[in-house]
Write a structure and sequence with these properties.
Strand order of the largest sheet: 1-2-10-7-12-5-4-3
CATH architecture: Sandwich
CATH superfamily: q2cbj1_9rhob like domain
Strand content: 35-45%
Largest sheet: 8 strands, antiparallel
CATH class: Mainly Beta
Radius of gyration: 16 Å
Order of helices and strands: EEHEEHHHHEEEEEEEE
Number of domains: 1
CATH topology: Jelly Rolls
Number of helices: 5
Number of strands: 12
Length: about 200
């Protein structure tokens, strides 16, 4: 399993995860899981989202392997190294922290999400405790009806649509120029992994 990053613009990059599993195999694993309604998750940022369910601890060995790899210290190092190389201003925004300080002062990890048709989150920027957010989609192909759209300001300027095929995704530094919205306007469930680098307080 390998993850790679490609810079899109300031504070935003495209993610590609190579996985040794087909989409149909992953879909079967997702469908077997016991999902938790987002409203019943006590540790969450903001209000509960309608039509969203969470899977913090999958029972499937396949899904567990993917989440463990994505949440590993190895991936955390890679994410921090990449973001510092792509976007040096991240250091200025966080008290001049070196890469090592960023690693030591933060937590990294995530969970799977299932967004049912009708799910929508309006344009926003993430909470300040969140330094980096990564979304990796597990759907059959790129689908504009199941994507996340990024803007450079609150006026929704310069829209950029994240790729949503299996193992495709997006990662961004939480800052003023990464407003985004997303949803599921299709007729099938949207599966994805969400990972975050947050301040350890």
């Amino acid at each position: 399993m390998n993850i790679s990053f490609e810079k899109v613009r300031h504070n935003l990059c495209q993610v590609s995860l190579s996985i040794p599993y087909s989409y149909s195999d992953l879909k079967k694993e997702f469908e077997r899981e016991s999902w938790i309604d987002h409203g019943n998750i006590t540790e969450r940022a903001g209000d509960p989202h309608l039509n969203r369910s969470c899977l913090p601890s999958p029972s499937s060995p396949i899904l567990k392997d993917i989440l463990n790899q994505l949440s590993s210290n190895e991936t955390k190092h890679q994410v921090i190294d990449t973001m510092y190389d792509f976007f040096p201003s991240i250091q200025e925004n966080w008290d001049g922290w070196s890469k090592k300080q960023m690693f030591d002062k933060t937590l990294w990890g995530g969970q799977f999400l299932k967004d049912k048709p009708g799910y929508y989150i309006k344009p926003h920027i993430d909470t300040r405790i969140q330094i980096i957010t990564c979304l990796i989609y597990f759907i059959a192909d790129h689908d504009p009806n199941q994507t996340t759209i990024f803007y450079t300001d609150s006026n929704l300027s310069d829209p950029w649509m994240a790729p949503t095929g299996a193992g495709c995704g997006v990662m961004h530094v939480n800052d003023y120029d990464v407003w985004h919205e997303g949803g599921n306007n299709s007729n099938t469930d949207r599966y994805l992994a969400i990972l975050g680098l947050i301040i350890n307080i």
